[in-house]
């Protein structure tokens, strides 16, 4: 799992560079050349959707997602780990349902033949990160729930500087 999440972090960095480059290109064309490119804003929007939904799964893996921490402060000792697994199970149910609904939405979109306004590509392409993000979040929840040789560490840090 660490390798997958590390790859997602690198992918996010590349997507952020592409997003920044496209935004600068749009500013140049809009304000210097006075000829805005309509497709650039759409691509930037879709890249941001990919970034948010794919990196949400890494946030679950790193235990840095939105969380209600009040119970962690009250519950100590041997009950803390089952609480984290219970919380991950609830998130798993939500993300698995979310992925299923995303899949049905993509299938309906393909069936209807919807296309994006500027790029004129299938609307399924901007919806794929909904499914991909849901699946990756569910997989990371399973990783938290299933006992491992070394139990899940709350302060786990994904160090992208070391090789391996």
TrEMBL record:
Pfam families: DctQ (PF04290). The chain crosses the membrane at residues 7-31, 43-62, 86-107, 127-146. It is a multi-pass membrane protein. The keyword Transcription regulation does not apply. It comes from the Bacteria. Keywords: Cell inner membrane, Cell membrane, Membrane, Transmembrane, Transmembrane helix, Transport. The keyword Lipid biosynthesis does not apply. Residues 20-145 form the Tripartite ATP-independent periplasmic transporters DctQ component domain. InterPro entries: DctQ, TRAP_DctQ. It is found in: Cell inner membrane. Belongs to the TRAP transporter small permease family. This is TRAP transporter small permease. It comes from Metabacillus herbersteinensis.
């Amino acid at each position: 799992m660490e390798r997958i999440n590390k790859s997602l972090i690198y992918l996010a960095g590349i997507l952020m560079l592409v997003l920044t480059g496209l935004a600068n290109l749009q500013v140049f064309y809009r304000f210097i050349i006075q000829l805005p490119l309509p497709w650039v804003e759409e691509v930037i929007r879709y890249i941001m959707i990919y970034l948010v939904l794919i990196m949400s799964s890494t946030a679950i893996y790193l235990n840095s997602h939105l969380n209600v921490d009040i119970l962690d402060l009250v519950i100590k000792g041997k009950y803390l780990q089952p609480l984290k697994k219970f919380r991950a199970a609830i998130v798993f149910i939500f993300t698995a349902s979310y992925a299923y609904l995303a899949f049905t939405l993509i299938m309906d979109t393909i069936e209807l033949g919807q296309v994006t306004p500027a790029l004129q590509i299938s609307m399924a392409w901007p919806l794929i990160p909904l499914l991909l993000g849901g699946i990756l979040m569910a997989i990371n929840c399973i990783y938290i729930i299933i006992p491992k040789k070394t139990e899940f560490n709350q302060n786990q840090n994904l160090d992208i500087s070391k090789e391996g």
